[in-house]
């Protein structure tokens, strides 16, 4: 993406934009001291956009939110719980979404169809609604528009995440400062197709609903749909975007230069949040980035990049700091994309430098010691140059460690 004049050094996550407030607390769903419920609220009604899992098994909150995004006149609040996913819970689970929305509505004086609902955690269990309703009654009392409150909310949506994930930027449209901020969670069951991957983005931009949805739907294909931790597409994957218009910019109602500015800012937010998820994959030690360059088509580039980043053998080699480039070329080969293996150049890159390991499909004369140094950093990039076309794509993932197995063997216990 072309880099517009954005201020990327701002804090506040979902509270960075004007008019948004948040809170997070421990309601007792997880029976421990960890925060497990969050609320995001806008002073003014918002136009809403959303992108959801393509898994045929869709959690109750996904169905609820799809209806709110596409059929309600506006949205103004999002209530989230962690610990229980409310997936595979039938009509009872969907009814609990309605109960959550109604309870928020009663506390905040909002119609229930202005309240979005999200859940993350163990699949198949019913929500403990007595605990959740008490949590919802407490959440509004702590709503604040500051960075600390945004962090409380970001922490409350975590499950196996090791850190909260937030980012925000601002930029100008016709002299008005416009802000976009967001938070997300995701560490395992990450292979979105739009993990329990949840993302909430807020903006004070004044923009038409159809253009908001268009931007979100397009950008998700190059960001969240290009990450993978373990190849599992969750029942709960959701990206929700709320715009309250409080920046008071001239409304964006056509795909003009102002739309492009907003698009690029939103792209940055979603790309950074995607990388934060990939870099916090369950048990991971390393963010693994795969860039495919000069492919014949964009789809070929994306297919090969995701094939490499999803390869368990390649991920294990990255964990072992082993420059086993044959696994990369192999993953490109079984991806189904068109390319000539005898033209491919492969490089490894990290904070230690850049090293070519393959030239024209064969091993280059490289130092294994130097390769190991490069692969020992927390962010490793594999660059695969097909040298056939002009299309590029990037995918994000992580290494595959012993800890991943330990976490998922004990997840419910």
Automatic annotation (TrEMBL):
It is found in: Cytoplasm. InterPro entries: Arg_biosynth_ArgJ, ArgJ-like_dom_sf, ArgJ_beta_C. The record marks 120-121 as: Involved in the stabilization of negative charge on the oxyanion by the formation of the oxyanion hole. GO terms for molecular function: L-glutamate N-acetyltransferase activity; L-glutamate N-acetyltransferase activity, acting on acetyl-L-ornithine as donor. GO terms for cellular component: cytoplasm. Catalyzes two activities which are involved in the cyclic version of arginine biosynthesis: the synthesis of N-acetylglutamate from glutamate and acetyl-CoA as the acetyl donor, and of ornithine by transacetylation between N(2)-acetylornithine and glutamate. It is an enzyme of class 2 (transferase). Belongs to the ArgJ family. This is Arginine biosynthesis bifunctional protein ArgJ. Substrate binds at residues 159, 185, 196, 282, 408, 413. Pathway: Amino-acid biosynthesis; L-arginine biosynthesis; L-ornithine and N-acetyl-L-glutamate from L-glutamate and N(2)-acetyl-L-ornithine (cyclic): step 1/1; Amino-acid biosynthesis; L-arginine biosynthesis; N(2)-acetyl-L-ornithine from L-glutamate: step 1/4. It catalyses: L-glutamate + acetyl-CoA = N-acetyl-L-glutamate + CoA + H(+); N(2)-acetyl-L-ornithine + L-glutamate = N-acetyl-L-glutamate + L-ornithine. The record marks 195-196 as: Cleavage.
């Amino acid at each position: 993406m072309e880099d517009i004049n954005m201020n990327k050094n701002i804090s506040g996550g979902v509270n960075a934009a004007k008019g948004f407030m948040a809170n997070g607390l421990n309601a007792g769903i997880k029976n421990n001291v960890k925060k497990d419920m969050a609320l995001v609220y806008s002073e003014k009604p918002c136009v809403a956009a959303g992108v959801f899992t393509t898994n045929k098994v869709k959690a109750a909150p996904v169905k609820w939110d799809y209806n709110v995004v596409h059929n309600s006149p506006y949205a103004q609040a999002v209530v989230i719980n962690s610990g229980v996913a409310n997936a595979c819970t039938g009509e009872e689970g969907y009814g609990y979404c309605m109960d959550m929305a109604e309870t928020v509505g009663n506390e905040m004086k909002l119609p229930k169809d202005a309240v979005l609902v999200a859940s993350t955690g163990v699949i198949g269990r019913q929500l403990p609604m007595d605990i959740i309703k008490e949590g919802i009654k407490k959440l509004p009392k702590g709503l604040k528009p500051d960075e600390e409150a945004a962090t409380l909310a970001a922490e409350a949506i975590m499950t196996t995440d090791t850190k909260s994930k937030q980012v925000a930027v601002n930029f100008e449209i016709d002299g008005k400062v416009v802000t976009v901020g967001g938070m997300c969670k995701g560490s395992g069951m990450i292979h979105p197709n739009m993990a329990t991957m949840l993302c909430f983005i807020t903006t004070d931009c004044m923009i038409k609903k159809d253009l908001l949805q268009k931007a979100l739907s397009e950008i998700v294909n190059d960001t969240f749909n290009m990450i993978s931790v373990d190849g599992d597409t969750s029942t709960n994957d959701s990206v929700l975007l709320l715009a309250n218009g409080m920046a008071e910019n001239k409304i964006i109602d056509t795909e003009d230069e102002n739309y492009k500015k907003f698009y690029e800012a939103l792209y940055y937010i979603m790309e950074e949040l995607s990388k934060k998820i990939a870099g916090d994959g369950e048990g991971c030690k390393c963010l693994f980035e795969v860039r495919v360059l000069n492919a014949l088509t964009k789809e070929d580039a994306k297919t090969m990049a995701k094939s490499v980043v999803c390869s368990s053998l390649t991920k294990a080699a990255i964990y072992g700091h082993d420059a086993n480039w044959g696994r990369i070329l192999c993953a490109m080969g079984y991806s189904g994309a068109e390319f000539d293996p005898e033209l491919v150049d492969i490089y490894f890159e990290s904070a230690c430098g850049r090293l070519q390991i393959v030239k024209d499909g064969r091993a280059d004369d490289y130092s294994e010691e130097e390769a190991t140094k490069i692969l020992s950093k927390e962010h490793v990039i594999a660059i695969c140059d097909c040298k056939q076309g002009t299309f590029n794509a990037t995918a994000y993932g992580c290494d595959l460690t012993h800890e991943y197995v330990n976490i998922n063997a004990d997840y419910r216990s």
